[in-house]
């Protein structure tokens, strides 16, 4: 068995999208989940799909990879995208005044983000309605979002899931 060249507490945590030809490495403590990664982490990309290697040198609080694109969430809650952007999945809409993105998710040809007020914004290809977020019943918010191949799913504050 090969020993990791990294001390156990600093071993890289790898994330590889099932549909993406690129992989991302987030150097952080062993066991840290990527959506909750430390704001002190550094993102490095590599693989068969050549993303822009001139990412701004700054700190990111979350990353996610989709079909041929990835999203990087800055520590201030803004989102930038890299990769193939034909249907616009890399260009996150600006959050409304006073709000920030608190979670991001990259699908195949669309992306989604959870805003700090509990609403979901989705952008990019909308061939199957994957960017049409269902309205919330009074008193509920969204607490989680996940963009898939051609759908988006949201979890509400009461625990119910909407796809």
Task: Give the gist of this structure.
By secondary structure, the chain is an all-beta fold.
Descriptive account of the structure:
The chain contains no helices and twelve strands. The chain has strands at residues 13-16, 22-27, 42-47, 60-65, 69-74, 79-83, 101-106, 110-115, 120-124, 142-147, 152-156, 161-162. Mean pLDDT is 76; it is low at 1-41. By secondary structure, the protein is mainly β.
Strand order of the largest sheet: 1-2-3
Provide the residue-averaged pLDDT. 76
- Largest beta sheet, briefly? 3 strands, antiparallel
Poorly predicted spans = 1-41
Question: Architecture, CATH level 2?
Answer: 7 Propeller
Q: Any idea what the CATH superfamily is called?
A: Regulator of chromosome condensation 1/beta-lactamase-inhibitor protein II
User: Which class of secondary structure composition applies to the elements?
Assistant: mainly beta
Write down the Rg: 16 Å
**CATH first level: which class?**
Mainly Beta
* Gross geometry: globular
Q: What is the N-to-C order of secondary-structure elements (H for helix, E for strand)? A: EEEEEEEEEEEE
How far apart the termini lie comes to 43 Å
According to CATH, the fold-level topology is: Methylamine Dehydrogenase, Chain H
* Secondary structure: helix percent: under 10%
- Count of alpha/pi helices: 0
- The tally of strands reads 12
SS strand fraction: 35-45%
Count of folded domains: 1
């Amino acid at each position: 068995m090969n020993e990791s060249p990294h001390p156990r507490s600093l071993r890289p945590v790898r994330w590889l999208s099932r549909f993406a030809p690129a992989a991302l490495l987030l150097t952080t403590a062993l066991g840290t989940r990527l959506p909750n990664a430390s704001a002190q982490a550094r993102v490095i990309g590599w693989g068969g799909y050549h993303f822009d290697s001139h990412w701004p040198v700054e700190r990111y609080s979350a990353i996610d990879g989709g079909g041929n694109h990835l999203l990087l969430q800055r520590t201030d809650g803004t989102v930038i995208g890299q990769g193939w952007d034909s249907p616009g999945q890399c260009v996150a809409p600006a959050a409304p005044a006073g709000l920030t993105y608190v979670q991001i998710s990259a699908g195949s040809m669309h992306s989604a983000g959870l805003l700090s007020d509990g609403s979901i914004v989705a952008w990019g290809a909308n061939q199957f309605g994957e960017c049409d977020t269902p309205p919330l019943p009074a008193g509920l918010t969204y607490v989680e979002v996940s963009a898939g191949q051609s759908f988006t799913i949201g979890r509400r504050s009461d625990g119910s899931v909407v796809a």
